[in-house]
Amino acid sequence: MFIKDYRVSIAIPIILLISSIFLIFYEGIPKSIDITGGTEITIKVDKDIDISPLKESLDGIAEVKKLKSADGYYIVIRVSEDKVDIAKEKIKEFFHVDSLDELNYSEKTVGAILSSKFFEEGFKAILFAFIFMAIAVYVAFRNPVASGVIILSAISDLIMALGGMSLFKIEISSATIAALLMVIGYSVDSNILLTTRVLKRLSKEFDEVVKDAMKTGLTMTLTTISAMTVLLIVVKLFIPVAEILSNIATVLILALIADIINTWFLNAGILKYYITQYKGKN
C-alpha cells in the first residue's frame, strides 16, 4: 500500500502545498468585477466575428472575450470605472455605430465600495467557517494531533484550490468564494472519516484500517468529482455563457483532487507516524 513510508506520504502534499503558495504569491489570482469593481458590458451578436481588432484597441484598457451560446455569440468587455467612457468609444468604433443602444447589449456596474465589501465579507465567511470547524473538530476528538491534522488538511485543500485557480486563471468572485466555503465541508468530511476509523480501530493493522476507510471516502469524493465534471462539460459545450457555473465546478474539482491527496497521503501519513512510531515509543 502507498502509505508504507509515511515520510514520502507526507512529503508529496507538502511539496504541492509549497508549490501552490508560490503560484498564489508570484502569479496571483485574477479577480472579477465583484471583487475589484468596474463595469461589464455584454454584447450579443448573431454570428461569429473576429474580435482581434477590438482586443487590440482595448489592450491595457479592458479585458475582452467571446463566448458561444446556443442562441448566438456574446462579447464580454470588463473595464475599470475610470476607463468606461474610453472603452465605450472603442466599442462604437469597432461596431461602426453612433450609440451602444443600437447594439443588443447589457451593462453591469459594481462600485468600488460594494466590491470591497463583497471581498471582505467573503473572507470573513471563510475565516469564521475555519474557526467553527476547528472548534467542532477539537471537541469531537479531544486529541490535539488528530484535530490538528484535520485542520491542516482543510487548510491545505483551500490553499491548493487557490493555487489551481492561479494556475488556470480562474477569477475570485462571489461565486468562487462560495465554492471555497464548500471545500471546507468536503475536506472535513473525508478527514473525519479517516481519523475516526483509525482511532477507533487501534487493535487492527493500520494499513488495513486505512484501506477500509478509503473504500468509503474515495467513493464519496469521486462521485462528487464525476458530477462536477459532467456539469463542467455540459456548461463548456452547451452554455459557455454560464461562466459562473463553470468556475464553481472547476474550483470544486481542483479542491476535491487536493482533498484526495491531503486526506490519503498527508493525514494518513501523519496518523501512521503518530500511531506506529510516536505512540509506539511511549
Automatic annotation (TrEMBL):
Q: From which residue to which does any coiled coil extend?
A: none
What Pfam families does its record include? SecD_SecF_C
Q: How does it sit in the membrane?
A: Multi-pass membrane protein
What processes in GO biological process is this protein linked to?
intracellular protein transmembrane transport; protein targeting
UniProt entry keywords in alphabetical sequence? Cell membrane, Membrane, Protein transport, Translocation, Transmembrane, Transmembrane helix, Transport
Q: Name one GO cellular component term.
A: plasma membrane
What residue stretches are annotated with the Protein export membrane protein SecD/SecF C-terminal domain? 93-275
Localization recorded for this chain is: Cell membrane
User: Which InterPro entries did the record assign?
Assistant: SecD/SecF_arch_bac, SecD_SecF_C, SecF_arc
The portions of this protein that span the membrane are 6-26, 123-141, 147-168, 175-198, 218-239, 251-275
Say which domain of life the source belongs to: Archaea
Q: How does it assemble?
A: Part of the protein translocation apparatus. Forms a complex with SecD.
Q: What does this protein do?
A: Involved in protein export.
Family in the record: Belongs to the SecD/SecF family. SecF subfamily.
Name under which the protein is recorded = Protein-export membrane protein SecF
Q: Which organism is it from?
A: Methanocaldococcus lauensis
